[in-house]
Amino acid sequence: MALHIIKLVVGCDTIEDLLAWHKEGHPWIMHTRMTPKRIDDVLDGGSLYRVFKGQILCRQKILAIDTVGSGPSSRCEVTVDPTIVRVAPQPRRPFQGWRYLTPEDAPPDLTEGEAADLPPELARQLRELGAW
Fold first, then answer.
1. Which of 50, 95, 128, 130 has the highest count of CB atoms within 10 angstroms of its CB?
2. Which residues of 46-68 are buried (b: 16+ CB within 10 A; e: fewer)?
3. Per-residue pLDDT of the chain (132 residues; tens, 9 = 90+)
4. Rounded to whole angstroms, what are the CA distances from 109 to 27, 68, 95?
5. Phi, psi (deg, nearest 5) at residue 13
6. C-alpha dihedral over 1, 62, 72, 38, to 10 degrees?
7. Contact at 8 Å (CB) between 43 and 62?
8. Of 73, 50, 85, 46, which Cα lies nearest the Cα of 62?
9. Residue 108 main-chain phi, psi, to 5 deg
10. Contact, 34 vs 74, CB < 8 A?
11. Which of 47, 43, 42 has its CA nearest to residue 59?
């Protein structure tokens, strides 16, 4: 069974900001301090779900998880597919680090039509009001 990871996005307020940041040549690698203990479950079709300003808005398929370094200075690198799949917005409280997300609890993917129907700013305002 696939297991997903959920992570807060730092430094980007929107999916468009994230895309613009990566256009500058930054690799699609998420850095974190701890390596997941359930790597096999995550690599079995898992995705990285991203939280922007208190809302899960998108996901990317996880391609690889690598531990870099050793001892207290070791870090984890999660390589993701550059294709961003928008999902139905789901509120999420702030948390530190990353968390696992089961397939049952993951928000459903949006179709291209659903994702393109609203301008991003209007969609954000509707989410903040709890109307979407």
1. 50
2. bbbbbbbeebbbbbbebeebeee
3. 689 999 999 888 888 888 888 887 778 898 888 888 999 999 999 999 999 988 899 999 999 999 998 888 889 999 999 999 999 888 889 888 889 999 999 998 887 766 665 666 676 676 667 665
4. 24, 32, 23
5. -95, -20
6. 0
7. yes
8. 46
9. -75, 150
10. no
11. 47
Rounded CA-CA distance 43/65 in Å is 8
Query: In this structure, how many other beta carbons lie within 10 angstroms of the beta carbon of residue 27?
Result: 10
19 contacts: CB under 8 Å, gap ≥ 6: 84
Residue 128 structure tokens: 């903040």
The answer to whether 30 and 7 have CB atoms below 8 angstroms apart is: yes
**Closest listed residue to residue 50, CA positions, set 125, 121, 117, 107:** 107
Pairing of strands 47-52, 55-68: antiparallel
Which amino acid is located at 114 in the chain? E
The strand pairing partners of 91, in sequence order, are 55
